[in-house]
Amino acid sequence: MKKSSGKKTLGNSLSELLDKFAQNDVIAALEEDYYSRPSKIVAKNLIDDNSIVKKVKLSPATVSRFAESIRKNGIYNPLVVRPKGNHYELILGRRRFHGGKLAGLNEFPCVILNVQDEEMLLMLLADARDQRDADVVELALVFKVLNDKYGYTHETLAQVSHLSRSQVTNILRILRLPEPVLEEISLGKLSYGHAKAIASLSEEEMRRMVESIHRDGLSVRQTEKAVASLEGKEGKSVDKGEAIAAKIGAEKILIKKKSVTISFPDEDCKESFINKLFDADL
User: Do 111 and 81 form a contact (C-beta atoms < 8 A)?
Assistant: First the structure.
Protein backbone atom coordinates (compact mmCIF):
# COMPACT_ATOMS: atom_id res chain seq x y z
CA MET A 1 0.00 0.00 0.00
CA LYS A 2 1.31 3.47 -0.83
CA LYS A 3 1.50 6.34 1.56
CA SER A 4 0.05 9.68 0.52
CA SER A 5 3.56 10.75 -0.49
CA GLY A 6 3.60 7.98 -3.08
CA LYS A 7 6.56 6.30 -1.42
CA LYS A 8 6.49 2.60 -0.61
CA THR A 9 7.80 1.87 2.84
CA LEU A 10 8.08 -1.21 4.96
CA GLY A 11 6.28 0.47 7.84
CA ASN A 12 2.92 -0.08 6.17
CA SER A 13 1.15 -3.10 4.71
CA LEU A 14 3.35 -4.47 1.94
CA SER A 15 2.13 -5.60 -1.43
CA GLU A 16 2.29 -9.32 -2.19
CA LEU A 17 5.12 -8.51 -4.62
CA LEU A 18 7.33 -7.13 -1.86
CA ASP A 19 6.50 -10.03 0.45
CA LYS A 20 7.44 -12.49 -2.28
CA PHE A 21 10.56 -10.88 -3.63
CA ALA A 22 12.15 -10.07 -0.27
CA GLN A 23 12.59 -13.80 0.39
CA ASN A 24 15.97 -15.51 0.10
CA ASP A 25 16.69 -17.43 -3.12
CA VAL A 26 13.33 -16.35 -4.55
CA ILE A 27 14.57 -16.56 -8.14
CA ALA A 28 15.65 -20.18 -7.71
CA ALA A 29 12.19 -21.02 -6.37
CA LEU A 30 10.44 -19.05 -9.09
CA GLU A 31 12.55 -20.61 -11.83
CA GLU A 32 11.69 -24.07 -10.54
CA ASP A 33 8.03 -23.10 -10.92
CA TYR A 34 8.51 -21.41 -14.31
CA TYR A 35 10.49 -24.28 -15.81
CA SER A 36 7.83 -26.79 -14.84
CA ARG A 37 5.44 -24.98 -17.17
CA PRO A 38 5.17 -25.67 -20.91
CA SER A 39 7.65 -23.66 -22.97
CA LYS A 40 7.23 -22.22 -26.45
CA ILE A 41 9.86 -22.03 -29.18
CA VAL A 42 10.39 -18.38 -30.16
CA ALA A 43 12.52 -17.06 -33.04
CA LYS A 44 15.50 -15.02 -31.83
CA ASN A 45 14.45 -11.98 -33.89
CA LEU A 46 11.20 -11.82 -31.90
CA ILE A 47 13.02 -11.63 -28.54
CA ASP A 48 14.10 -8.15 -27.44
CA ASP A 49 16.68 -7.54 -24.74
CA ASN A 50 15.29 -6.22 -21.47
CA SER A 51 14.44 -2.52 -21.78
CA ILE A 52 15.81 -1.65 -18.32
CA VAL A 53 19.18 -3.42 -18.34
CA LYS A 54 19.96 -3.72 -22.06
CA LYS A 55 22.59 -0.97 -21.75
CA VAL A 56 24.54 -3.16 -19.27
CA LYS A 57 27.36 -4.77 -21.24
CA LEU A 58 28.09 -8.46 -20.81
CA SER A 59 31.77 -9.34 -20.93
CA PRO A 60 32.86 -11.20 -24.09
CA ALA A 61 34.36 -13.91 -21.86
CA THR A 62 31.00 -14.51 -20.16
CA VAL A 63 29.10 -14.65 -23.45
CA SER A 64 31.73 -16.99 -24.94
CA ARG A 65 31.53 -19.28 -21.91
CA PHE A 66 27.75 -19.58 -22.27
CA ALA A 67 28.05 -20.05 -26.04
CA GLU A 68 30.49 -22.92 -25.59
CA SER A 69 28.26 -24.61 -23.03
CA ILE A 70 25.23 -24.24 -25.31
CA ARG A 71 27.12 -25.70 -28.27
CA LYS A 72 27.96 -28.76 -26.19
CA ASN A 73 24.79 -29.20 -24.15
CA GLY A 74 22.08 -27.06 -25.73
CA ILE A 75 19.82 -24.70 -23.73
CA TYR A 76 19.43 -26.33 -20.31
CA ASN A 77 16.68 -23.98 -19.14
CA PRO A 78 14.23 -21.88 -21.17
CA LEU A 79 14.34 -18.10 -21.15
CA VAL A 80 11.65 -16.24 -19.23
CA VAL A 81 9.99 -13.56 -21.36
CA ARG A 82 6.82 -11.48 -21.45
CA PRO A 83 4.70 -10.38 -24.42
CA LYS A 84 5.42 -6.87 -25.67
CA GLY A 85 3.56 -5.89 -28.81
CA ASN A 86 4.37 -8.42 -31.51
CA HIS A 87 7.61 -9.36 -29.78
CA TYR A 88 8.71 -10.70 -26.41
CA GLU A 89 10.80 -8.88 -23.81
CA LEU A 90 13.50 -10.87 -22.06
CA ILE A 91 13.23 -11.05 -18.27
CA LEU A 92 15.45 -13.92 -17.07
CA GLY A 93 18.20 -15.72 -18.96
CA ARG A 94 20.08 -12.79 -20.50
CA ARG A 95 23.43 -14.58 -20.52
CA ARG A 96 21.88 -17.68 -22.09
CA PHE A 97 20.21 -15.51 -24.73
CA HIS A 98 23.39 -13.73 -25.81
CA GLY A 99 25.44 -16.91 -25.50
CA GLY A 100 22.89 -18.78 -27.62
CA LYS A 101 23.00 -16.11 -30.33
CA LEU A 102 26.79 -16.36 -30.41
CA ALA A 103 26.47 -20.14 -30.65
CA GLY A 104 24.31 -19.69 -33.75
CA LEU A 105 20.86 -20.47 -32.36
CA ASN A 106 17.97 -19.04 -34.37
CA GLU A 107 15.27 -19.89 -31.82
CA PHE A 108 14.94 -20.35 -28.08
CA PRO A 109 12.63 -22.23 -25.71
CA CYS A 110 10.75 -19.61 -23.67
CA VAL A 111 8.38 -19.56 -20.72
CA ILE A 112 5.97 -16.69 -21.38
CA LEU A 113 4.69 -14.73 -18.37
CA ASN A 114 2.15 -11.94 -18.38
CA VAL A 115 3.72 -9.70 -15.72
CA GLN A 116 3.49 -5.94 -15.29
CA ASP A 117 6.50 -3.62 -15.17
CA GLU A 118 6.74 -3.52 -11.37
CA GLU A 119 6.88 -7.29 -10.99
CA MET A 120 9.37 -7.55 -13.84
CA LEU A 121 11.63 -5.03 -12.06
CA LEU A 122 11.45 -6.99 -8.80
CA MET A 123 12.32 -10.17 -10.70
CA LEU A 124 15.37 -8.41 -12.17
CA LEU A 125 16.33 -7.10 -8.72
CA ALA A 126 16.06 -10.52 -7.08
CA ASP A 127 17.97 -12.14 -9.95
CA ALA A 128 20.81 -9.60 -9.69
CA ARG A 129 20.79 -9.89 -5.89
CA ASP A 130 20.98 -13.69 -5.85
CA GLN A 131 23.69 -14.07 -8.50
CA ARG A 132 27.23 -14.65 -7.32
CA ASP A 133 28.59 -12.44 -10.09
CA ALA A 134 25.86 -9.79 -9.87
CA ASP A 135 26.40 -6.64 -11.92
CA VAL A 136 26.16 -3.60 -9.69
CA VAL A 137 25.24 -1.38 -12.67
CA GLU A 138 22.25 -3.60 -13.43
CA LEU A 139 21.19 -3.39 -9.78
CA ALA A 140 21.55 0.41 -9.81
CA LEU A 141 19.38 0.76 -12.93
CA VAL A 142 16.62 -1.37 -11.40
CA PHE A 143 16.84 0.55 -8.11
CA LYS A 144 16.48 3.85 -9.99
CA VAL A 145 13.29 2.86 -11.84
CA LEU A 146 11.71 1.39 -8.70
CA ASN A 147 12.59 4.59 -6.84
CA ASP A 148 11.63 7.09 -9.55
CA LYS A 149 8.56 5.42 -11.09
CA TYR A 150 7.12 3.36 -8.25
CA GLY A 151 8.15 5.37 -5.18
CA TYR A 152 10.27 2.70 -3.49
CA THR A 153 12.28 4.37 -0.74
CA HIS A 154 15.93 3.54 -0.17
CA GLU A 155 14.89 1.73 3.00
CA THR A 156 12.42 -0.47 1.09
CA LEU A 157 14.99 -1.20 -1.61
CA ALA A 158 17.47 -2.11 1.12
CA GLN A 159 15.14 -4.71 2.61
CA VAL A 160 14.21 -6.23 -0.74
CA SER A 161 17.86 -6.38 -1.86
CA HIS A 162 19.17 -7.52 1.57
CA LEU A 163 21.50 -4.53 1.77
CA SER A 164 21.81 -1.56 4.12
CA ARG A 165 20.19 1.73 3.16
CA SER A 166 23.61 3.35 2.79
CA GLN A 167 24.65 0.57 0.40
CA VAL A 168 21.57 1.25 -1.71
CA THR A 169 22.42 4.96 -1.75
CA ASN A 170 26.01 4.25 -2.77
CA ILE A 171 24.92 1.87 -5.54
CA LEU A 172 22.55 4.50 -6.94
CA ARG A 173 25.32 7.10 -6.83
CA ILE A 174 27.36 5.25 -9.45
CA LEU A 175 24.73 6.17 -12.07
CA ARG A 176 26.33 9.64 -11.96
CA LEU A 177 29.28 8.10 -13.76
CA PRO A 178 29.51 8.58 -17.54
CA GLU A 179 28.54 5.67 -19.81
CA PRO A 180 32.13 4.64 -20.65
CA VAL A 181 32.93 4.25 -16.95
CA LEU A 182 29.73 2.29 -16.27
CA GLU A 183 30.66 0.04 -19.18
CA GLU A 184 34.08 -0.61 -17.64
CA ILE A 185 32.38 -1.68 -14.39
CA SER A 186 30.06 -4.08 -16.23
CA LEU A 187 32.96 -5.54 -18.19
CA GLY A 188 35.00 -6.05 -15.02
CA LYS A 189 37.69 -3.55 -16.00
CA LEU A 190 36.88 -1.30 -13.04
CA SER A 191 35.69 -2.44 -9.62
CA TYR A 192 32.64 -1.12 -7.80
CA GLY A 193 34.97 0.13 -5.05
CA HIS A 194 36.85 2.27 -7.57
CA ALA A 195 33.57 3.52 -9.04
CA LYS A 196 32.23 4.49 -5.63
CA ALA A 197 35.44 6.37 -4.85
CA ILE A 198 35.31 8.55 -7.97
CA ALA A 199 31.53 9.15 -8.13
CA SER A 200 31.78 12.63 -6.57
CA LEU A 201 34.25 13.96 -9.15
CA SER A 202 33.48 16.01 -12.23
CA GLU A 203 33.36 14.11 -15.52
CA GLU A 204 36.78 15.36 -16.57
CA GLU A 205 38.27 14.49 -13.16
CA MET A 206 36.70 11.03 -13.40
CA ARG A 207 38.27 10.47 -16.81
CA ARG A 208 41.72 11.42 -15.54
CA MET A 209 41.31 9.33 -12.38
CA VAL A 210 40.24 6.25 -14.36
CA GLU A 211 43.31 6.70 -16.57
CA SER A 212 45.44 6.87 -13.43
CA ILE A 213 43.79 3.74 -11.96
CA HIS A 214 44.64 1.77 -15.10
CA ARG A 215 48.07 3.31 -15.69
CA ASP A 216 49.31 3.14 -12.09
CA GLY A 217 47.36 0.10 -10.92
CA LEU A 218 45.78 2.04 -8.04
CA SER A 219 43.97 0.01 -5.39
CA VAL A 220 40.58 1.17 -4.12
CA ARG A 221 42.19 2.66 -1.01
CA GLN A 222 44.83 4.46 -3.08
CA THR A 223 42.06 5.81 -5.31
CA GLU A 224 40.13 7.06 -2.28
CA LYS A 225 43.23 8.88 -1.05
CA ALA A 226 43.84 10.38 -4.49
CA VAL A 227 40.25 11.62 -4.68
CA ALA A 228 40.49 13.05 -1.14
CA SER A 229 43.66 14.87 -2.08
CA LEU A 230 42.13 16.19 -5.29
CA GLU A 231 38.96 17.43 -3.63
CA GLY A 232 40.88 18.72 -0.63
CA LYS A 233 42.23 21.47 -2.86
CA GLU A 234 38.71 22.90 -2.85
CA GLY A 235 38.42 22.83 0.93
CA LYS A 236 36.49 19.55 1.09
CA SER A 237 36.97 16.83 3.66
CA VAL A 238 36.06 13.75 1.61
CA ASP A 239 37.13 10.97 3.94
CA LYS A 240 35.19 12.36 6.89
CA GLY A 241 32.24 13.50 4.75
CA GLU A 242 31.85 10.15 2.99
CA ALA A 243 31.98 8.27 6.29
CA ILE A 244 29.31 10.47 7.87
CA ALA A 245 27.15 10.33 4.73
CA ALA A 246 27.18 6.53 4.74
CA LYS A 247 26.29 6.48 8.43
CA ILE A 248 23.26 8.77 8.22
CA GLY A 249 21.97 7.71 4.78
CA ALA A 250 22.93 10.97 3.06
CA GLU A 251 23.95 11.16 -0.58
CA LYS A 252 26.78 13.63 -0.04
CA ILE A 253 28.24 15.84 2.69
CA LEU A 254 30.36 18.88 1.93
CA ILE A 255 32.41 20.02 4.92
CA LYS A 256 34.05 23.44 4.87
CA LYS A 257 35.60 25.57 7.59
CA LYS A 258 32.37 27.13 8.88
CA SER A 259 29.62 25.16 7.18
CA VAL A 260 28.31 21.67 6.50
CA THR A 261 26.00 20.96 3.55
CA ILE A 262 24.09 17.67 3.56
CA SER A 263 22.38 16.33 0.44
CA PHE A 264 19.88 13.47 0.70
CA PRO A 265 18.81 11.08 -2.09
CA ASP A 266 15.10 11.63 -1.44
CA GLU A 267 12.59 13.39 0.82
CA ASP A 268 12.09 10.35 3.07
CA CYS A 269 15.79 10.10 3.90
CA LYS A 270 15.88 13.80 4.78
CA GLU A 271 12.78 13.53 6.99
CA SER A 272 14.15 10.42 8.70
CA PHE A 273 17.39 12.26 9.53
CA ILE A 274 15.53 15.31 10.86
CA ASN A 275 13.26 13.14 13.01
CA LYS A 276 16.29 11.35 14.48
CA LEU A 277 17.87 14.71 15.26
CA PHE A 278 14.82 15.86 17.22
CA ASP A 279 14.49 12.49 18.94
CA ALA A 280 18.15 12.54 19.97
CA ASP A 281 19.23 13.51 23.47
CA LEU A 282 20.79 16.84 22.52
Answer: yes
